[in-house]
Amino acid sequence: MPEFELEDENFSEIRQRPEISETLKVLEGLTEPTSSAISYGLTDLSADELAVLLPVWAGLDAEYRRSVVKALVDVTETNIEFNYSALAEAALNDADDGVREAAIELLWEDESIALMDRLIEISLHDDAVLVRAAAANALGRFILSGELGDIPEEQTERARQAAIALWENPDEDVEVRRRALEAISNSSHDIVPEAIEQAYQSHDQRMQTSAIFAMGRSCDDRWAGHVLSELENESPEFRYEAARAAGELELEEAIPALSGLAFDRDVDIRDVAIWALGEIGGKEAVRVLTLLVNDAKSQGDRDLSESIEDALAAATLNSGDLYMMRFDD
Questions:
Q1: Where are the alpha helices (DSSP H) in 149-266?
Q2: Contact 246, 231 (CB under 8 A)
Q3: Structure pTM?
Q4: What is the sign, positive or negative, of the torsion defined by CA atoms of 207, 213, 218, 222?
Q5: What's the rounded Cα separation, in Å, for the pair 76 and 86?
Q6: Does the CA dihedral 265-267-273-278 come out positive or negative?
Q7: Contact 159, 146 (CB under 8 A)
């Protein structure tokens, strides 16, 4: 069975959700596959519909199941009205590692304590390294919510302790430990600075890039020197994480380097550098972004222009120069 690919859809148009029987026919390849039949057919599943779906779902090729769940992740990133939690929660028990990993990503909006506890269990006990790593990484949003008071910290403390246990376990795979570090970097726990320094001084580049990520997420200015240095790193992965960290730390000293990275051939680095300039704000960031947006418009790059304009709006707000903003009717 071929992979499921998401077609271009106008999700602003209200569509009627098909009957579960029609969705099953599409999944089984009995009718011509369309992304709308799956994207609309799998949202807001009732318990009865899920019970009908799961036997068919289990019989589908694992690669196809992975591609469907990953496509649904793409849908939810731009269309918050879709709710695939019923399928995603069931997919956490899928026999295929890749499906379980994608299911964790599909639940990215869910901040329920029930999911948090399930992720703790997965991060500690799942057989697959990448699934444990994905679960450990997902614990970060619960830890942050506890820090911000959005969820009672006495409840999210379980997530923090699980992430710390994963980080401190020398026998755990590096991929899991680094994601646990990223998760606890959202925390004010005393272990965080030491953990970041230990990871940064390691000889594993994966761990080092996670350390740079954690520097930014920690909102601790002590890491400014390291972040500024890594903006010049030859490795694209290091430059990317350093640019993001510079934005999160709002390092004005990083503006010259970020201005250069905004022209990087690596699109991801370019985009994160533009975002970081917006987060830092101030007159110099506004000036640089204004030059960038004019250049993008002259080249007719609409998508790039829009992303720079978003950053420019953020930079203007952060600099307090509201009078510089132009509001269209």
A1: 153-168, 174-184, 191-200, 205-218, 224-230, 236-249, 255-261
A2: yes
A3: 0.89
A4: positive
A5: 14
A6: positive
A7: yes
Q: What digits encode the pLDDT tens for the residues 19-30?
A: 999 999 999 886
Q: Torsions phi, psi of 153, nearest 5?
A: -65, -25
User: Cβ(218)–Cβ(194) under 8 Å?
Assistant: no
CA atoms within 13 A on the CB side of 186: 25
Q: 137: burial class by Cβ within 10 Å (0-12, 13-18, 19+)?
A: buried
Phi/psi of residue 226, nearest 5 degrees:
-60, -45
Pull the structure tokens for residue 262: 């905004």
Q: How many residues does the chain have?
A: 329
Which residue do the tokens 């690919």 mark?
A: 5
CA pair distance 70, 66, nearest whole angstrom: 6
- Other CB atoms closer than 10 Å to residue 249's CB: what's the count? 25
pLDDT value for 89: 98
What tokens were used for 202? 């390691």
Kindly report, residue by residue over 112-132, the tens digit of the pLDDT. 999 999 999 999 999 999 999
Which amino acid is residue 18, in one-letter code? P
Q: Where are the alpha helices (DSSP H) in 111-173?
A: 113-125, 129-148, 153-168
Alpha-carbon gap, residue 309 to 328, rounded angstroms: 13
Kindly tell me the burial class for residue 131, based on how many C-beta atoms sit within 10 Å of its own C-beta (0-12, 13-18, 19 or more).
buried
200-223 burial, b at 16+ Cβ within 10 Å, e below that, comes to bebeeeebbbbbbbbbbbbebeeb
